[in-house]
Design brief:
By secondary structure, the protein is mainly alpha-helical. It is built from eleven helices and six strands. The strands form three sheets. Strands 1-2 form a two-stranded antiparallel sheet. The chain has a two-stranded antiparallel sheet with strand order 3-4. A two-stranded antiparallel ribbon has the order 5-6. Strand 1 and strand 2 form a beta hairpin. Helix 1 crosses helix 6, helix 2 packs across helix 3 and helix 6 packs across helix 7. The longest helix has 17 residues.
Length: 262
């Protein structure tokens, strides 16, 4: 590897992609996914970790929490970050395309990014994805992995740890709030069952992120499955990792006011 080799735009798009799918404490040269990415980029893990920390210095969500990242972001780093802030759907789609090109993913495969297992190609998660616009599909994949990784691949209600059974659920609906589609504060990692209940307004979360169960759902109690999956968690707070970006309270309030049906 040539010393001081400059990062290309496509490499930085890949770095942005991986940055959004990891928590700040995971931006370390020893993290398996960073070692995997470094090998694919023909760079050192230290170089990749440093670049991710440079990107972190541009992130207002981290700055609001008193986290500064590493100084030294390049002009191209800043340019790509500004483009991402202005048009997240387009840039996230470009970043997914750059990542797919790097790992030579087939058209019908998804590229999965996980902290401990690296970057791998997996079959698509559902038959309807092929019918979507490619840009939308890539952006939804980007959001899904970002949210699942933020919650350590566990349902934030039940703790279910099976990634294939988890959904990155939007708090503000995708169709009504395009500007918040890729906002990490707009996501919850839920099991498929709880995602359906949240999306249809059977459950919500209060100002302290404690689960509320609707009277509409309670009409079906007692019923063992509903007792096990909903009643036992009523009043308990979301399980959020200490270093994760939590859901924005205003978004949860909108869901309670506009979607939750008590």
């Amino acid at each position: 590897m040539a010393a001081g080799r400059k990062w290309t735009r496509d490499e930085l798009l890949v770095a942005l992609n991986i940055y959004r799918k990891l928590k700040f404490g995971q931006l370390d040269a020893r993290t398996p996914v960073i070692k995997d990415l470094a090998a694919k980029l023909h760079r050192s893990p230290n170089s990749v970790a440093m670049k991710l920390c440079n990107i972190a210095s541009l992130d207002p969500l981290l700055r609001a929490r008193g986290i500064r990242g590493l100084e030294g972001a390049s002009n191209l780093d800043r340019q790509i970050w500004a483009e991402f802030q202005e048009n997240p759907l387009e840039i996230s789609s470009q970043s997914e395309a750059a990542l797919r090109a790097l790992v030579r993913a087939p058209e019908d495969g998804e590229v999965e990014v996980e902290k401990n297992s690296g970057i791998k190609i997996v079959p698509p998660s559902g038959p309807t994805e092929q019918l979507m616009n490619v840009k939308v599909r890539r952006s939804q994949q980007f959001f899904r992995q970002m949210i699942l990784n933020a919650f350590d691949s566990r349902c934030c209600i039940t703790g279910v740890p099976i990634r294939e059974l988890l959904v990155a659920s939007h708090i503000l609906p995708w169709s009504k709030f395009p500007e918040e589609r890729l906002n990490p504060e707009n996501g919850l990692c839920l099991s498929r069952l709880h995602d359906g209940a949240f999306d249809t307004g059977f459950i919500a979360f209060d100002n302290d992120c404690r689960m509320i169960v609707s009277k509409r759902l309670k009409k079906f109690l007692p019923q063992k499955s509903l007792n096990d999956n909903f009643e036992r968690y009523e009043g308990l707070p979301l399980n959020c990792a200490a270093d994760a970006i939590p859901p924005r309270p205003e978004f949860l309030r909108y869901h309670r006011d506009k979607i939750f049906v008590n």
